[in-house]
Amino acid sequence: MGTERLASRLAAVVGPAHVLADPGLRASYETDFTGRWTGRARLVVRPADTAQVAGVLRTCREAGIPVLPQGGNTGLVGGSVPTPAGDQVVLSLRRLDTAGPVDPDARQITVGAGLTLSALHGRLRPQGWEFGVDLASRDSATLGGMIATNAGGERVLKYGTTRANVAGLQAVLADGTVLDRLAGLPKDNTGYDLTGLLVGSEGTLAVLTAARLRLVPRPRHRVGALLAVDSIAAATALVTRLRGLESLELAEFFTAEGLDLVLEHTGLPAPFRARHPVHLLVECAARHDPTDELAELLADADLLDAAVAVDAADRHRLAAYRERHTEAINAAGTPLKLDVTLPPAELPGFAAELPALLDGRARPYLFGHLAEGNLHVNLLDVAPADEEAVVLAVLGRVAAAGGSISAEHGIGRAKARYLHLTRSAAEISAMRAVKSALDPAWLLSPGTLLAAPD
Ligand code: MLT
Ligand code: ZN
């Protein structure tokens, strides 16, 4: 089907104003925010509700047109933008940004896939509730995208990944069939867990349109601290001790090199007078004030420096040193982003070995979520000819140590050819069978996660 005819059929579903054909209007949907992943959409289509999503999918399925679902386009593995081939329709879910009332008995809320995490936080805060998942891209990341990628973020040690915080989903299959699992029942053993299957499926099995989310009561008190230590090994040991505190909610680390970039990019004042090798950002939250228990635990810790934040403004000030790493690294170049998990005992050894693995072929910046052994290995100045070898050196080492080649960003297009490093042939073939069953023509998010059959 020609693009003009397709556009007019899609316009009949969503209205002409919501089918974007003009290259200028499409541009923000075609490139990710690192600038590394870019492509060309045949059209961008912006449905308003589940019925329109189903209509778009039916139309594309009949015409054999591949569809790329997109949320806030904050993904980091190329799964949120179309390929350069220019054959995919980008299906933006951003207009599905509704939020229902909080259900205090079930401790749940139903939201549209296009609601941003910040908008959800803003809605819940005055009502005394919270969604356990939080991450630095909260202003643009949408709940649908976070669920599709099973986003992790900063509070996994307390609340788990997005998967643990989703009680149900509404989704549309490639043929337009709507699956409705929004009841959110805490006990419901009636067959395959379709919600669990779709969480983390990266847009390859269905298009997520709404979600039933688990909530937690908002803790009355939160305290934060920025701690400086002399090594990643010391930071890891400190996190092990801090985990003795039930109130511990967040334990994030970054190094001096990353902080230098953040200070240069943001103009923020340095957190301490001296430059320290490693920083650990921690936050504790509870019904009681956790300041004393945190101070007690830190009293005999081997710290080079420490700053404590008791009010929200101060906490945000300290968190900025960690949260602004992504934009600061982007400003310094186009990073090759790796996102790995290592068993905690392997972390210090991996970090120490990294320069040898890279062998001068990249400038590394390490930061991430220490409690889960999740290192963001951001590499700048990698020559295109070295990329493959560098990625294989790092991911191969991670696989050999029993880690994962994607902790929280997903596989997308960036890691699809490395999936076999940490998933067995039997597992990959089971995944392919599921994909073929739910999307027989392989029209949803082609090239993401699994290579299409020849
Ligand atoms: C983060 O932890 O800030 C995110 O995963 C983004 C990133 O890795 O750049
Ligand atoms: Zn992260």
UniProtKB/TrEMBL annotation:
Belongs to the FAD-binding oxidoreductase/transferase type 4 family. This is Oxidoreductase. GO terms for biological process: respiratory electron transport chain. One of its GO terms (molecular function) is FAD binding. It comes from the Bacteria. Keywords: FAD, Flavoprotein, Oxidoreductase. Residues 37-218 form the FAD-binding PCMH-type domain. Its cofactor is FAD. PROSITE patterns: FAD_PCMH. Pfam families: FAD-oxidase_C (PF02913), FAD_binding_4 (PF01565).
